[in-house]
Fold:
Amino acid sequence: MTSRDRRASTLAALDALAAQTGLPAGTRVRVHLVDAGSCDGTAEAVRRAHPGVQVAEVGPDVYWSHGMRLASRNSRAAGLPDPTHQLWLGDAVRLRAGALAELLATARRFDDAAIVVGALSRAGLTVRSGRTAPPALALVEPTGTPERCATYDGDVVLVPWAVRERVGDIDKVFRHGMGDHDHGLRARRAGVAAYVAPRAVGEWAGAGSGVPGSSEPGIGVREALRRVASEAERPVWPWAVYCVRHAGVRAPGLIVAPYVLTALRAGRTRGRGHRGASS
Structure:
């Protein structure tokens, strides 16, 4: 897990994880949380409420993908035997009772050779035709039976340890976004299937970041480009790597598309604003 300034939701996520039912006999859950510069006392609150959780405090320059790599590294450096599975869990996810048991049971259906994704408000993702992203993605909803997906958001992802050793962690080129999608697409390329679990495993109870994005009306082109190229949206180098890996011959055009479209949109909205003010 990785968290920043979400004390209440992180504690709720850990409470729900600790309350899981129906786990196979002898199951032990070790939790590794990276706290990325929280100012709301998240790390201290977690240590008080869940003293068994291993908390690593890092600076605010560590974003989600980087934090998840650190948590994975810490889980391997704990001086304990390798786990059988690795669970990615979002800091605002509240698992329903029995969710982890269902994820494990689904993995067993595939001999622990496939990745299992837990559906929330967002689920696993499958490839569809289209030219808006590399590739365009659509949600896969749970249907009562495991459903194949091509990649996934990183809120609830169960990775059998043998698969983790084969695919690796989230790539270090991704510091925040895109790392989970890239991981799923790399797993697919390596011959590892991913499936959405038969039922929704919980809910996402977090609030939005509240940070205005590049599409905010009235900002200038320079500010819009600064925002779209930030870690929160489409940082240039990670986006270029993602496109080259997964977009094929469309990569060159897709690499520049977010920045060109952002500049054009900002120019139009700024122009309309100026005309409205002068009238």
Remarks:
- The chain has a mean pLDDT of 88.
- The radius of gyration is 20 Å.
- The first strand starts at residue 2 and ends at 3.
- The longest helix spans residues 251-278.
